[in-house]
Design a protein that fits this description.
9-stranded mixed sheet
Length: 721
């Protein structure tokens, strides 16, 4: 279906198709057997006759059981959908899925987990045909695809996925949490969510935003527990830009945790109820505090002590920052070359060159304990900042431990915020979806134990810091058939981290760290007799990465400026921006484009100058009305300066259309154009001032977004003098 099964089965793993078996028959009987009360339901309400499709029935099931050391987890989903137009027929005409998955918990029992797929089509005359999945499946580029033949408007497609995951386990663990809205892109006539568990399985479950409550179903077995949630007449919800569904739509969240005994319950990375038969629906701040009682200072600090020896710092804040970046290098970036060499197959185990010095953190908690330990060693106290991302709802709705994000806040002036590092992570950087959210501040009052908790708010960055800046110099080619373009681009704040992963390869920053911390590269740690061989092999890897990078950047430039042809592309890094949140990632790129954005008009030329600010959001008429509030990742701004060299013997007309100004409380778009000698300078500024905008102010956002989009359609005339 060009509906990929990943859309349908986000929580149900990858799939394996097996021959007719007991499990397959069990799955078919479960959904399509004698107890199927929906097998004759074919009509949809009159009010939904103009929809693309209507879900007659949606059913999700979760089954958790244990047999000695064996745990058996079954999860399944079924949808019965009536197709009402050609778009729906096209959408459901093909399934795509991966074929195999390994169990995600415990120890495999020797057989892999099975996810059994069933699909049948019901024609308007009532005739049914079951698709032979094994026969119709085709492997394409690592995926398995199944075409659903002869689908027509008015057909019903009824399909399921039935996953069985057996494994052994003697320890405690949490199954993957599920957080889902009731509504989706098609309306739903009837919906049922069903649970079955027994002793040693703890359930955290809560409905939000008006969703029905989970109800207990009485059973005749003491240890068997069943629950269901049902709803009908669920209106569709189309996917909106800048929207957090879990914040506003009816939804549910749950996680099941397995713990065989009280000692495992105490060690659980979860908020558990006092008894398995009690479903946990809320978490108190005291429970949060208790969950962090094992965050104590711990670690071998000799490397940090060696780094700090004989160094002086202006403040404890400066020292805390220096320690963080040293740790980022010592426990991560100095090993990146070894990871690259292993992945490239140059050496099977390159980490041996580090001897006993190859220490890497294996969890966020390891980092937290180690960093707190070195702060304690230097008499720098710190707090823990613990919060949920904004898209997951308010702090009052906390239910799942995995949804908590933890940062360290030093008790210095100014405070320093740090989080577990990646290769480009900087201090005082928050996940943007945490910014502005309520959080808990855990503080040590007695020694280093975190024994005090209070509410606070995560600071919010501003649009001046989260900035993209582009200075673009343009000149026409000699034949007036294209342009020579040179851009100096910089990103700061939240705008740069994704760009750092895209624009930098390991060579661009690993050498920078080697020089800063006076450490030896991987090659220099080898015996001299081997250095040349492995240096050449590593350089070959670098060259391939550069070639791939260039191909990606050429395509990116084509997309950004709406070009079809780019030649003579060059690219270089100016700054990596890896040591403060505000420092820019900066690079220069240059290329020649021919045949685009310029058109001859008699003796004159029309230039689509507006395209040089890149693609802008086009708010379609159908989206001009909005019922939801606007949630964005972070405030941000985009600054462009375009300098066009006007050829000798020509003048410019049409500059008045390039002067625009819309500025309101939600954001702005301002542009100006001026001519100085033979240089036309165009400046544009676009700002998103907040990470949240009320739906009542949506029209204000549309005003500046439409102005920016209109600018991309503006042209100037290059007139022959």
């Amino acid at each position: 279906m060009k509906l990929r099964l990943s859309l349908l089965l986000t929580l149900f793993f990858s799939t394996i198709i097996i021959a007719q078996s007991k499990d397959e028959q069990e799955a078919r009987d479960f959904f399509w057997g004698e107890n199927d009360t929906y097998k004759t339901v074919v009509n949809v309400p009159e009010k939904w006759q103009n929809e693309s499709a209507v879900i007659i029935y949606k059913n999700e099931n979760y089954d958790f059981h244990k047999f000695g050391k064996k745990v058996n987890y079954k999860s399944s989903i079924r949808k019965r959908i009536k197709l009402l137009d050609k778009a729906a027929v096209e959408e459901f005409s093909e399934f795509s899925y991966q074929k195999r998955f390994r169990v995600s918990k415990g120890v495999s029992l020797g057989t892999r987990g099975n996810n059994i797929i069933g699909v049948k089509v019901i024609k308007p005359d009532g005739s049914e045909s079951i698709i032979d999945i094994n026969k119709e499946a085709v492997e394409v580029d690592g995926e398995t695809k199944v075409a659903i033949p002869n689908l027509e408007v008015g057909d019903i497609i009824d399909y399921y996925s039935y996953s069985i995951e057996p494994f052994k386990s003697t320890y405690a663990f949490g199954f993957n949490p599920v957080e889902r809205t009731l509504s989706e892109e098609y309306p739903i006539m009837d919906y049922k969510l069903f649970f079955e568990t027994e002793n040693d399985f703890f359930i955290n479950f809560k409905s939000f935003n008006g969703a029905p409550e989970l109800k207990k179903i009485e059973t005749d077995k003491k240890n068997l527990r069943r629950y269901e949630l049902t709803e009908s007449d669920i209106e569709k919800h189309k996917n909106e830009r800048w929207f957090f569904p879990l914040v506003e739509l009816p939804c549910y969240k749950f996680q099941v945790f397995f713990a065989r005994s009280g000692k495992f319950e105490k060690r659980a990375d979860a908020f558990l109820s006092d008894k398995e038969e009690i479903i946990k629906t809320s978490v108190s701040k005291e429970e949060v505090l208790n969950q962090y009682d094992d965050i104590y200072p711990y670690g071998d600090l000799k490397y940090e002590e060696r780094f700090l020896k004989n160094k002086e710092f202006a403040s404890d804040s400066e020292k805390a920052i220096a320690i963080y970046y040293f740790m980022r290098h010592h426990y991560l970036t100095r090993f990146i070359e070894a990871y690259i060499i292993k992945d490239a197959g140059i050496l099977d185990y390159p980490f041996g060159v580090y001897g006993n010095d190859a220490t890497m953190f294996n969890s966020d908690n390891t980092f937290l304990k180690h960093y707190i330990a070195i702060l304690k060693d230097n008499k720098i106290k710190c707090d823990l900042l613990v919060g949920k991302k904004r898209y997951d709802g308010s702090l009052d709705d906390l239910l799942i431990y995995k949804n908590l994000n933890t940062l360290i806040k030093t008790q210095t002036n100014p405070p320093v915020y740090v989080k577990p590092f990646g290769p480009h992570t900087t201090v005082n950087t928050f996940d943007p979806t945490l910014e502005g959210a309520e959080a808990y501040l855990l503080s040590p009052v007695k020694r280093w134990d975190y024994d005090q908790i209070e509410r606070t708010a995560v600071p919010v960055s501003n649009y001046q810091v989260n900035k993209t800046n582009k200075n673009i110099a343009i000149s026409l080619t000699d034949d007036f058939n294209g342009f020579s373009v040179k851009s100096v681009v910089s990103y700061t704040g939240h705008e740069k981290e994704d760009q750092q992963f895209d624009r930098l390869i390991f060579k661009d920053y690993v050498d920078e760290d080697y020089q800063k911390y006076e450490t030896e590269s991987f090659i220099k740690l080898l015996r001299k007799s081997k250095q040349e061989k492995y240096r050449n092999e590593l350089n070959a890897v670098i060259e391939k990465l550069r070639e791939k990078q260039k191909e990606t950047f050429v395509n990116s430039a084509k997309t950004e400026y709406n070009l079809t042809n780019i030649e003579d592309y060059t690219y270089s890094i100016n700054e990596t921006g890896r040591y403060t949140f505000e420092d820019p990632l900066s690079y220069t790129e240059a290329f020649i484009s021919t045949g685009d954005l310029i058109k001859k008009a008699g003796p004159n030329y029309i230039i689509e100058i507006g395209k040089f600010i890149g693609g802008q959001i086009d708010i379609l008429d159908e989206n001009k009305e909005r019922d939801e509030n606007i949630y964005m990742g972070y405030p941000r701004s985009y600054q462009y300066s375009i300098n066009l060299t006007v050829p000798e013997g020509y003048t410019i007309a049409g500059l008045d259309k390039l002067n625009k100004s819309i500025d309101n409380k939600t954001g702005s778009f301002v542009s100006s154009a001026s001519l100085d000698g033979n240089t036309l300078t165009i400046k544009t500024s676009k700002e998103y001032k907040h990470n949240y905008v009320s739906k009542s102010d949506w029209q204000l956002m549309i005003n500046f977004l439409d102005e920016a989009h209109q600018f991309t359609n503006e042209k100037i005339l290059l007139k022959k003098s």
